[in-house]
């Protein structure tokens, strides 16, 4: 009998159909012209575009090691996204087949065993397995939590020169003071050099105390508690660390979420503020207003504000007929800015 060899096949990532951006999306508002839903629901960027975006975000920061230089790219860097492929045999009589599962993202710097444990602690519908709703959810979150126009001035529309300078300083500052990437490790082992971290999984039955970040041995009787839910973190179960929070704090994988929207932080990318992790979107708009018309951060001091909402002056227009509403009557209903005529027609 001929012996079969196990072969791993690296297949192209399944592409989820999206609508053409230019034809179906209003560039000014970044909303679908037909149904008024957000851009991330219809016009997701490609994997390559996402990797370029995250590469740009992490470059010029202390997390640039998670990026790689693009050959001939004049300094452009791309995200070295870690993928994980699991192959499990399926018994089918005399001719076994193999079930291959590809995670489109996995925490970097950990063994496959620890990476798989991490995935098992995330809700199944949010696990980024190729071709599933979880993978689609991750891509939507990349668009929602980390808008390209929050970091790249060239993707903003109509920035004046003084606004450009303010934005560049804004981005430089958050990369230096707030941007972070979570680290996955066993309790008590966060912040270890990678050489030691790879030794964190000992053979079953081995008795070793987990070293702490200051080089001393941790107390084996110490109880590790999640910062969010205050539940105990089992010694054999991975947790997430934030270097900006300090390695005395840890989170269950499902608890490492934005303090504002409570959504899991995509690819563990966070912004640290007021003693908690934020997603990029809510961190930026906690410091400066975001235009309800174009979704971009406002870097001008001259803008329109109504209660908790803000608009660039030029975007303070009726969402129905697009007439300027500065100095005119307007109605805000269900988050929509409308002139009285359009508001009346929607009610009828």
TrEMBL record:
According to its UniProt entry, one GO biological process term is: positive regulation of calcineurin-NFAT signaling cascade
Q: Cite the InterPro entries for this sequence.
A: PET_domain, PET_testin, Pk/Esn/Tes, Znf_LIM
Give the residue ranges for region: Disordered: 185-219
Q: Which SMART domains match?
A: LIM
Q: Where in the cell is it found?
A: Cytoplasm; Nucleus
The entry's keywords: Cytoplasm, LIM domain, Metal-binding, Nucleus, Phosphoprotein, Repeat, Repressor, Transcription, Transcription regulation, Zinc
Task: Tell me a GO cellular component.
Answer: cytoplasm
Where's the PET domain? 84-191
Protein's gene: LMCD1
SUPFAM superfamilies, per the entry: Glucocorticoid receptor-like (DNA-binding domain)
**Residues covered by the LIM zinc-binding domain:** 224-289, 290-348
Predominantly, its location class is: cytoplasm
What functional role does this protein have?
Transcriptional cofactor that restricts GATA6 function by inhibiting DNA-binding, resulting in repression of GATA6 transcriptional activation of downstream target genes. Represses GATA6-mediated trans activation of lung- and cardiac tissue-specific promoters. Inhibits DNA-binding by GATA4 and GATA1 to the cTNC promoter. Plays a critical role in the development of cardiac hypertrophy via activation of calcineurin/nuclear factor of activated T-cells signaling pathway.
Taxonomy, top ranks, is: Eukaryota, Metazoa, Chordata, Craniata, Vertebrata
Q: What is this protein called?
A: LIM and cysteine-rich domains protein 1
Database matches in PROSITE patterns: LIM_DOMAIN_1, LIM_DOMAIN_2, PET
Gene Ontology MF: a single term: transcription corepressor activity
Biased composition, Polar residues: where in the chain?
A: 210-219
**Quaternary assembly:** Interacts with beta-dystroglycan. Interacts with GATA1, GATA4 and GATA6.
A Pfam family that the UniProt record links to this protein: LIM
């Amino acid at each position: 009998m001929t012996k079969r060899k196990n072969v791993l096949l690296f297949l192209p990532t399944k592409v989820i159909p999206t609508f053409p951006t230019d034809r179906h999306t209003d560039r000014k508002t970044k909303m679908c012209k037909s149904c008024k839903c957000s851009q991330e629901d219809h016009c997701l960027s490609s994997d390559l575009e996402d990797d370029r975006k995250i590469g740009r975000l992490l470059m010029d920061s202390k997390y640039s090691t998670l990026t790689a230089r693009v050959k001939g790219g004049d300094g452009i860097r791309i995200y070295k996204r870690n993928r994980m492929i699991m192959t499990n045999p399926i018994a089918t009589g005399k001719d076994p087949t193999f079930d291959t599962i590809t995670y489109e993202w996995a925490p970097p710097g950990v063994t496959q065993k620890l990476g798989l444990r991490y995935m098992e602690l995330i809700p199944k519908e949010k696990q980024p397995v190729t071709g599933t709703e979880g993978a689609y959810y991750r891509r939507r979150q990349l668009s929602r939590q980390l808008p390209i126009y929050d970091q790249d001035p060239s993707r903003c529309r109509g920035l004046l020169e003084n606004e450009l300078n303010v934005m560049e300083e804004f981005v430089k500052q958050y990369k230096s003071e707030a941007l972070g990437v979570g680290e996955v490790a066993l309790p008590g082992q966060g912040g270890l050099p990678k050489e030691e971290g790879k030794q964190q999984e000992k053979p079953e039955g081995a008795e070793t105390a987990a070293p702490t970040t200051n080089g001393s041995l941790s107390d084996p009787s110490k109880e590790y508690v999640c910062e969010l839910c205050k539940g105990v973190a089992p010694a054999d179960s991975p947790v997430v660390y934030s270097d900006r929070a300090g390695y005395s704090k840890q989170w269950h994988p499902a608890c490492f979420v934005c303090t504002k929207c409570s959504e899991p932080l995509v690819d563990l990318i966070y912004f640290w503020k007021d003693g908690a992790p934020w997603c990029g979107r809510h961190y930026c708009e906690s410091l400066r207003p975001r235009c309800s018309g174009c979704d971009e951060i406002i870097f001008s001091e001259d803008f329109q504000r109504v209660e908790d909402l803000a608009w660039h002056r030029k975007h303070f227009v009726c969402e129905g007929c697009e007439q300027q509403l500065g100095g005119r009557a307007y109605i805000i209903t269900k988050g929509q800015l409308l002139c009285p005529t359009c508001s009346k027609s929607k009610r009828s």
